[in-house]
Amino acid sequence: MVCCHHYQLIAGCDEAFRIDAQSMVFGPGCLSEAGAHAKSLGMTRVALFTDKGITASDHVAKVKASLEDAKITVAIYDDVAVEPTDESFKAGAKFAQDGKFDGFVSVGGGSVMDTCKAANLYASYPADFLTYVNAPVGDGQPVPGPLKPHIACPTTSGTGSEATGIAIFDLLSMKAKTGIASQHLRPSLGLVDPLVTHTLPKNVIAATAFDVLSHALESLTSRPFTSRTKPDNPAARPYSQGGNPWSDMIAKEALRLVGEHMVPAVTDTDNLEAREYLMWASSLAGVAFGQAGCHLPHGMSYAVSGLVRDFRPEGYPQHQPIVPHGMSVILNAPSVFRMTGPHAPERHLAAYACLGGTHDAGPSEAGDAVAEQLIMMMKATGIPNGLTGVGYGMDDLDALADGALPQKRVIDMAPFKVEREHLRAMFEGALTYW
Ligand SMILES: NC(=O)c1ccc[n+]([C@@H]2O[C@H](COP(=O)([O-])OP(=O)(O)OC[C@H]3O[C@@H](n4cnc5c(N)ncnc54)[C@H](O)[C@@H]3O)[C@@H](O)[C@H]2O)c1
Ligand SMILES: [Fe+2]
Questions:
Q1: H or E stretch including 302?
Q2: Residues flanking ligand 1, CB < 6 Å
Q3: Ligand 1 centroid to 362 CA: how many Å?
Q4: Pairing state between β 166-171 and 150-154
Q5: What angle do CA 296, 298, 303 make, to 5 degrees?
Q6: Which ligand number lies closest to the CA of residue 166?
Q7: Looking at ligand 1, which residue's alpha carbon is closest to its atom 35?
Q8: Rg, the chain, Cα only
């Protein structure tokens, strides 16, 4: 039997997928609606999370004023780390626990929204830090129930975190990123104002747009939901279900938008419309991968960012080395898609077409076609030339493979069974592209 959209059903495997529609308000100027939405969610005393790079911005001021106009008390927390760590998550959680808030508002990029999700979690259900962290790194215990209401206001056009139940951090003792994933972490509302993109530095636009691109591309090429064993309890389908007709539809539109608008948004500072389209693409991609899941470029990125030595890109805080998330993802991507292409050629060809690819590629060239399209976009937007461009070399391949291997939550969503030698080979293929 065939499910809708040509998903082939397999005996013993799942036959149904779940759709969790995210509550979202999208439009220019909508940050000034924050107070009204907070009130309707029952908030009276709010923790407003942001980071020091944007505390003084109009975006934060607009949200704070709107909350205060609605007679809501606001306490600002801006000690969020850009690319958060377990330590910075714990500090945010302590602020949330001490403040006894009845609601949370985050204004910032993925770093801020994720820290706010974690703070809300540990304030609502106090526990040892590793309790809810994904296994095998943490205990992988389920989040016990709903959290306090949270309005997430993204100020980067990248992570889609306003639409996901995921919070990512760098576990310092392991020098690798990992996360917490649960339906309960999904914000009550995403308040998405595309005007915030007007103040983004060029490098942040490039890195975050590649994050969007990879969310959509990984959703579209993740293993199909029909390849997962049928769950014993249908109410407990995994958070990442695999590719499905709902996520495919949304991922394709996100890819089309990024294919059209990424390069102009980065290279032409006057093209504000292109930036605004990227915000819409970001939220769409968040919905897609929030239902399907990401796979190898993300799983491998957690080692690339965790093992960073001395790379400090323009547009990001300079006090510590950092490979920004979207950059750490896309540096792996061409090498990954060359390897995944043969396992889902028609999906890779669909992605290639959505991204604006014009060559008449056949199924055997699907992975290479996607890789070449990505490399062209990386060159056009000033992304470093592979992992060597951010300081890695042949001597790092084993450490990178070892760092990525425990990222089972994402790596297991790849369209083929991934072993350590595959990871090493894909990192090697990602060292230099041109
Ligand atoms: N939860 C999820 O589903 C998910 C998905 C993808 C990535 N992530 C995580 O999100 C984090 C990265 O988030 P990000 O890429 O959004 O960047 P970010 O939040 O780390 O911010 C990057 C920089 O941009 C600045 N900035 C943010 N908005 C700005 C604006 N409007 N104008 C000017 N400067 C602005 C910040 O101050 C910071 O210096 C990583 O930790 C990553 O792992 C989470
Ligand atoms: Fe991402």
A1: helix 296-306
A2: 51, 53-54, 59, 82-84, 108-112, 114, 155-156, 158-161, 164, 166-168, 196, 199-200, 204, 208, 211, 316-317, 325-326
A3: 37
A4: unpaired
A5: 100
A6: 1
A7: 200
A8: 20
Q: Which of 208, 137, 204 is nearest to 177 (CA)?
A: 137
Q: Residue 194 is encoded by which pair of tokens?
A: 């595309």
Q: Which helix (H) or strand (E) holds 166?
A: strand 166-171
Please tell me the distance between residue 274's alpha carbon and the centre of ligand 1 in angstroms. 19
* Shortest-distance Cα residue to atom 12 of ligand 1: 110
Q: Rounded to an integer, what distance in angstroms lies between the CA atom of residue 182 and that of residue 240?
A: 10
User: How many A from CA of 289 to the centre of ligand 2?
Assistant: 9
Ordered structural domains, the chain, with CATH: 4-17+200-429 (1.20.1090.10), 29-192 (3.40.50.1970)
Tens of pLDDT along the chain (434 residues) come to 455 567 888 888 998 999 988 899 999 999 999 999 999 999 999 999 999 999 999 999 999 999 999 999 999 999 999 999 999 999 999 999 999 999 999 999 999 999 999 999 999 999 999 999 998 889 999 999 999 999 999 999 999 999 999 999 999 998 778 899 999 999 999 999 999 999 999 999 999 999 999 999 999 999 999 998 888 888 888 888 999 999 999 999 999 999 999 999 999 999 999 999 999 999 999 999 999 999 999 999 999 999 999 999 999 999 999 999 999 999 999 999 999 999 999 999 999 999 999 999 999 999 999 999 999 999 999 999 999 999 999 999 999 999 999 888 899 999 999 999 999 999 999 999 99
* Burial category of 169 from C-beta neighbours within 10 Å (exposed 0-12, middle 13-18, buried 19 and up): buried
Q: What is the pTM of this model?
A: 0.95
